[in-house]
Structure formats: C-alpha cells, structure tokens
Specification:
about 500 residues, six-stranded mixed beta sheet, globular, 3 domains, alpha/beta, Nucleotidyltransferase, domain 5
Length: about 500
C-alpha cells in the first residue's frame, strides 16, 4: 500500500474527474523529476471564471471571519499563513473558539477546513464557505472528509456541520449521510493510486468535461480515440449504456446496425446516424436532412422585411453579478439596409432600464411589422426574457403574446431535421456547415463573460467593443442560418 498521504482536494478531484486527477498526477511526477517533461499535460488556457471566483471566494471567507469576530464576538486563530498540523492540533487541544484554515491530518488524508468552530458541547463543528447559492454533493462530501479526519484526531465525528453560502446563508448538513459515498470513493481512489500507470489514462467521460482544467486535452483524447462523447447531444448515461454492450467508439457504433442496448430504437437510430455523419466528415462537414422528421424545417418561414435576430449576453452565475444581463443585441432585416442594434449595461442598475427599453422596442416593432418573426437560438432568449419581465413586473402579458406568436427557435430544425457530423448543435459548431469563419477576438459565450468580468471588476473599457462585436456576429449569423434553412427547405421540396 502506498504510504503517501493525499489531500482532501485530491480525493474530490478524483470524485469529479478521474482523468483530471490522472493528468495532475502525471504533471506532479514530472515536477519531481520522476517523468520526462515531454509527458506534461497542458492545462486549458482559458479557465473561465477562475480568477473571479478565487477573488470572490476569498472575500466570502473574510465575510464569514467577520461574522464570528464581530457578530459572534469570538476569538479567531488564523492559520492561513502558517497552518501546520502541529500548531493546529495545539489549538484544537486548547479549545480555541474558531480555527481558520487550520491543517488537519489523518492516516491517509490531509485537509484544510475553512473553519473549525467550538460548539456548546466543547466539540468542533466544521463550517466551509462556498461562493455559491446552492448546496452541491461535492460540498457535503468535503465536509464529511474533514469530519473523518477530525474523528481520527479527536475521537468524535461531528453530527452536523454547515456550509456558508452567498446571502449569509448557513445550511446545515447531516454529514454522516455521506458515509457510504465516501467509503466507496476512498476504495476506488486508493485502488487507482496504488496501481497508477502513467501510460494508462482513464477514459474521460462527458460528465467530466465541463469546467475541467484539462478540457482541451479531453477533447483531444476523444478525437484521437473517436469516442462516443463526440456525438452531439449524447448523454453520459447513453455512453455508459452503449459501453456495456462493447460499443466504445464511433466505428463500433456505425458497425452496429441493430440496437443491442436498452436505449430506445428512435434514440439509437439518431445516435447511429450522427456517428455515421461524424465518420464521413473530413475537411467539409457531412450533413443530411433527417427525412423522418422534417416538420421543424418545413415550419421555417421565408425571410420577411422586419425579421429580427436576437441574442443576449449575461452572467448566469451567483455572486455580485447574480444572473446579470449586460447586453441585448438584435439584427434587423430591412428593405433598405439591414442593421445591428444593442442595449448595453455598465452596471446592475442599468439592467432594468434596458429590459424595459428592449421590451418596448419589441412591442413597437411588432405593431410596425406584425408578420415579422423574431429568431433566436435555443430557448434561453425566450425563457430569460419572460423571467426579466416578471422580475421588473413590466408588460408581462404583452411580451408573452409576442413570444407565443412571433418567436422562432432556429435550433429546433437543426436538432430535429438534420443529421450533422458535429460534436454539438451549438451555433458555433453549426457555423462550420455554413462555412462561416469568425475573426473577432471573442470567440464564445464563455469568453464574452470573461471579458465582461474584466470590464466590470478591472474597469477595462477597451473590452466593451470586443464583446459587442461578438454579439453582433452572433445576431448576423442567425440571419445567415435562417437563409440557409429556407434554401434547404426549398431544395427538399423540389
């Protein structure tokens, strides 16, 4: 058995992504001179929101320190700069009221809980600060890990501990409920580390991709192995189901004409066709019309003067910028000259004004062009606009009527009426079929948020134009997509 002690962070990283933990371990071996530098696995260059969340988490922790220091008038022992296990243990034995960022160790793991708080029974509760509005399983599991270590040190396991969320929320967690998850995770973890093979990386599944620091590398692995995860819209559950029947690659799926799995025949057929399209795609993206489901394509109307193409930019995360809409963009197809327009919010107090102005614009536009449609991509613009009208209690009924009668989601025909050799149905991917090459600096919604983050918190006003340029491109590309869909509909009918 490996005698090395691992951190709670290592265990939780393995819980979220065995592949990311494998990558981190490889890089650690290189840093220690135990593996060649050529084996180093690069981290994804743009880890969206990381800097913002680091800063805000630190502020959030300070707020909690102030809670104990000022509101509760408790003495805080701060180990954030010198938190060795020895001096933390001494504070625990001396029954310090609050221990901040202390280091605790057991036989297998080390950890650094945000706060150890002495309760009325002269025992410690664990409190972790999370810059989030909601509890996640990972957070509760982390508390359990700290409780496990505290039990090794002090001989008792906290029955109840807390997570401090945004909005001064203390959510109590019955951490012993996570004993089974922890036991199973610990067993898998040590089996993995005790048999670690630098030449045998675990397969990165779809549920590991989001916000993974090795996301770019994961994509490379999928392409290299022609993994099922490349199929646009396939779920983690569907991948695992197909794996059980020996289907691990696009080739194996394409060669499997009869559905052997518990996936419905309709879904299997769609996945089969998408895998086939991916296999056929090379320099040009292979696509074909799904003739079994052309209703959504037939529903697309010809271009009308007055048609609008809308796209919103917003920050959908918790914190200071809580679901903040900073840009409403629209492109209008006009008889004389088509044009792009937008409403921009520098700060939160601008949002209400821009929501009302945008809603008024849509209502007036509907009066002027009653037959015109308002095109968007995916349901977000539709659902979020309704939420914003409810939030500000502004012309809810009128905008709902316009949404019901005039809004058209261009994703529907793409998702249902076409089989495309794409890794997703995102607008950025579909643009490859349209031969659209983006040249603007901002290339994705994630980058837009990152740029706005810098604009907002660092007062970097030069970034505003880049965000607007990106939004304009999104709106114009919806217009191009609409024309392409109308043409595909015409070709199908001739």
């Amino acid at each position: 058995m490996n005698n090395k002690k691992y951190s709670v962070s290592d265990l939780l990283l393995f819980y979220e992504s065995p592949y990311a933990f494998w990558c981190k371990t490889v890089n650690s071996l290189i840093d220690k001179g135990k593996a060649d530098e050529s084996r180093r696995i690069p981290e994804t260059e743009s880890n969206v929101y990381s800097e913002y969340f680091i800063k805000k988490t630190q502020t959030h922790e300070i707020n909690l320190k102030d809670h104990y220091l000022i509101k509760k008038e408790m003495t805080i022992t701060d180990f954030s700069n010198n938190g060795t296990f020895e001096n933390t243990l001494k504070s625990i034995k001396n029954k310090s009221q609050v221990i901040y960022q202390g280091s605790i160790e057991g036989n297998e793991f080390t950890g650094r809980p945000d706060f150890l708080v002495l309760n009325s029974n002269n025992k410690y509760d664990i409190v972790d600060a999370k810059f989030s509005k909601n509890i996640k399983t990972k957070y509760a599991l982390q508390l359990y890990c700290y409780g496990y270590l505290l039990n090794e040190i002090e001989g008792y396991f906290p029955e109840m501990s807390s997570i401090y969320l945004i909005g001064d929320q203390f959510i109590e967690v019955q951490i012993q409920d996570y004993a089974e998850i922890f036991s199973e995770l610990k067993s898998k973890f040590f089996k993995f580390v005790n048999n670690f093979d630098i030449d045998d990386a675990p397969h990165p599944f779809k549920n590991e991709y989001s916000n993974n620091v090795f996301a770019d590398q994961i994509k490379e692995v999928w392409f290299e192995k022609e993994s099922l995860e490349l199929i646009g819209g396939i779920t983690y559950k569907q991948v695992k189901e197909l794996n059980q029947f020996g289907i691990n690659t696009l080739k194996e799926l394409v060669n499997c004409e009869v559905n052997p799995s518990n996936i419905s025949n309709k879904t299997f057929s769609k996945l089969y066709k998408k895998a086939n399209a991916l296999k056929k795609s090379n320099k040009e993206i292979f696509f074909e019309i799904n003739k079994e489901n052309v209703e959504d394509l037939y529903a697309i109307e010809a271009l009308e003067h007055g048609d609008l193409y809308i796209d919103f930019e917003w920050y959908p995360y918790s914190g200071e910028l809580d679901n903040f809409f900073y840009l409403f963009g629209y492109f209008q197809n006009k008889k004389e000259e088509s044009s792009f327009g937008y409403l921009w919010s520098d700060r939160e107090y601008d949002e209400e004004r821009n929501v009302k102005q945008f809603v008024d614009f849509l209502i007036n536009h509907n009066v002027k062009y009653p037959d015109a449609k308002i095109y968007h991509y995916n349901h977000s613009e539709k659902t979020e606009l309704l939420k914003l009208c409810e939030k500000y209690d502004y012309k809810n009924k009128k905008i709902k009527k316009i949404i019901d009668n005039s809004f058209v989601d261009l994703l529907k025909p793409i998702r249902n009426s076409f089989i495309m050799g794409l890794t997703s149905n995102s607008l950025k991917e579909v643009e490859k079929v349209l031969n659209i090459e983006r040249i603007e600096e901002v290339q994705s919604g994630g980058q837009s948020m990152q740029y706005f983050e810098n604009f907002y918190f660092e007062d970097n006003w030069d970034l505003k134009d880049e965000i607007i340029n990106y939004n304009e491109q999104d709106c114009k590309n919806l217009y191009v997509l609409h024309k392409w869909l109308v043409n595909q509909k015409y070709l199908l009918k001739t």
